[in-house]
Protein 1
Amino acid sequence: MRISELSRVTGVPVATVKYYLREGLVPPGRATGATQAQYDENHVARLRLARALVQVGGLSVAAARDVLGSLDATEGSLHRVLGAAHSALPPHVGEEREPTRARELASAWGWRVHPHAPALRQLENALAALADVGAPASDERLARYADLIHRIAQVDVTGVPTTSREEAATAVVIGTVLWEPVLLALRRLAQEAVSVEVLDQS
Amino acid sequence: MRISELSRVTGVPVATVKYYLREGLVPPGRATGATQAQYDENHVARLRLARALVQVGGLSVAAARDVLGSLDATEGSLHRVLGAAHSALPPHVGEEREPTRARELASAWGWRVHPHAPALRQLENALAALADVGAPASDERLARYADLIHRIAQVDVTGVPTTSREEAATAVVIGTVLWEPVLLALRRLAQEAVSVEVLDQS
């Protein structure tokens, strides 16, 4: 298909398609002339994912390019794809803080994670922020969340297709960037529902 | 205490303290002269919370002012405080999409939520984004998450102090803005741990 049809099928304006092509978020089409190219279903899928990362995930174009690049570049197991995607996905945290407590917690829960996993630093920073406002996270409360979130992760990982590496990588990116807003919205709704239930009992 | 000590105690630079005062994130001190004012422990607490919202929560100064304003303005039950805080907190979504499916889901799960709760629109938008990339969320998968997240919300609500309205409101804001990064980091770590466990079994 031509670029105009690519735009029509995906609902992404031609100017945005050209911008994403120029920035490398979508691979170039097959050249059919000096100024024309042909696109296929792979371009449609990649363009939809690029738009979702930028518009729903709130990623910068540069961050989206890194994440989409990890889909092409990663080799090997689902586990490696997960690592590559998590490293490229926000939030990005500095190197300044050693994730000592986060490592201890993961170890206490029997979670085997890479000692330099970016999520360890994210956790350490988030815990430091809580301590900083005078509302430190207790080990007990964290353990209760960890138990429930481990079960959520089992649902996550079960949902990743094992048919092809690219499909698996795409599912991991979608699972991180696009499911996070779903889960956060569910938590806010559940908080409201639980607070109503508590009111009823009091 | 003077502004210099307020800065020293909280670790927030004087220039930032002045900026937050000017923008209304922190209430003015008690004037003790033409250019001097005294601050107390309430200012310390508010300043720490303001900094955490902006630096960890990633809120704009305007959004942080709205959230902090909801702490002062809200009257009544914890349930109302929750609604006010959620409305002021990101992500903000437009009015364009009617949250039809989100309402149906909440109703199917027996969750009593306000029909105009902002989280319903957040959920609807997030679900639309998943459908848009060709990875729609099934009712079955959502129900599994909803069950686990309802239990997370029970931990959340149990942790809210009932001693005073202001403490409750502060805890709700902290629970939403500062615990969300903790829970997301835990999910990423748990995904890695579960994917290792799955590898071991295969």
Protein 2
Amino acid sequence: MGFMDHVAACNDHDARRFIPFTIRGRMVGRMRPDFAELLKPWPELFSVTRHGVALKCTDAGLAACSARVSGVLEQLIAQGELGPFHGECYAAVAEDGAEGGKEPLLLIDRAMAPCFGIRAYGQHVNGIVWSREGLKMWVSRRADDRQHYPGRLDNLAAGGLPYGLTLSENLAKECWEEAGIPEPLVRTAVSVGAVSYHMDTEKGFKSDILYCYDLELPEDFVPSCMDGEVQEFYLWPLEQVMELVRDSREFKLNCNLVIIDFLIRHGYLGPDDASYLGLLSALRPGLPPLDPVCG
Amino acid sequence: MGFMDHVAACNDHDARRFIPFTIRGRMVGRMRPDFAELLKPWPELFSVTRHGVALKCTDAGLAACSARVSGVLEQLIAQGELGPFHGECYAAVAEDGAEGGKEPLLLIDRAMAPCFGIRAYGQHVNGIVWSREGLKMWVSRRADDRQHYPGRLDNLAAGGLPYGLTLSENLAKECWEEAGIPEPLVRTAVSVGAVSYHMDTEKGFKSDILYCYDLELPEDFVPSCMDGEVQEFYLWPLEQVMELVRDSREFKLNCNLVIIDFLIRHGYLGPDDASYLGLLSALRPGLPPLDPVCG
């Protein structure tokens, strides 16, 4: 295996399996027809056809409309059709929106985001130490009781961006909860770009944009987990992290992309690597167009 | 104006104006029909139709075939149809080639590359200094007698990758010629990624991939130009360089992309900028597909 295998694994998506989910005529997500079918008992809220699903309660305003959708999802949870809520909301925005005009069109519980196939945003932190022996990176091992990727390796701190928090607020929150990094230190984190991917999952469609940060930590800093998400932290030479990413599936899937981007930006993975240009363009794919449903 | 205007200026391309240039059935470039017309007097070398141009001398081997094409171009130069050769060769490779298998299919003088619309590769160096007052960047002003972009601002060192030189050989050559940077210092340059763009030009189609490097220079290093390409060097605070890129057309067109990439990687341009994600994906576009020519 190699670096590109991880990028491919994160981009295992077949647009033909989805129909558009629209709000006020704008596409905000991609839905599987079997999930669309579940929404048919609420025709006052959802217009469901084989061509797509349109949200109808938009005149009610963001809060009221989101509450009604949430009510439907709660009933589907009660019926055993869906798993439980996560307890944090993501904002659905138009896929084609100019970024200045990305106003939220619907708030959806994070666990339901893939059902509606909305784009989600996250933040991942490369925690690094310049030691006498060279550059090292902090890596965490996820707790064994996590729902997603138990026991796998992870970036020092990472998390989805819930509705209502700014990027810097959420960064401070995640860095504190997952690694005990105090806020003054978090503020020295440097934003260094973003990676994206589009993946079909059991629930539907996961389309993530991960903002990446490099955070240089003092040699005597030791992370500690506050929220039970991490069972152990490691401080490894970059070369070791690089080998683990290239040769194993130890890391949580999307963390591989964040570290590959790091390796490229810091010259560990250079233009002499045959996959260099391919990796560069594959780390940030745009949303693939949906084929029109004919007939 | 703003950062995105420079990216748009570098990607002013209309694929409908071009027909494919193929070698052994593989697309290696995009040609304007008026240039294809010029090749019709050599039917033993070029098959020219309204659907595309195919090179026919491929059985002769790379050197002999390239020499014959070069002979044709010399005649067109003598007839006044084309400007002079540059004197360095670029290698034409298949657009769809897996990168490991990018063997050269034809060598073309650099000045003729846009006529055939082949992909070209270059290297650009961000020369930076960490001083007590913060991060600074060396910027050069191109000599007034340059054919391209006379008097405009440029990266400290930059150049196309000619056939026959490795990336590190060419980097050392360009850094020495353009800025007098000795080789031991050049070897500390860090490869940090690449930007790409596709642009229609007076001659045809310019499709460039620029490998980017950050080179940290000692505070007492002063660049000096060896080849007459530069009239003056400046060491400016990053904020000043950033403003110049954002608010002016002072820089040679493609240098803007290299510096925008630098600003993103170093946190000067962050996710709070409305154009952030748009810039990230626009800095590395893939080659746009050619519409089939109908009829």
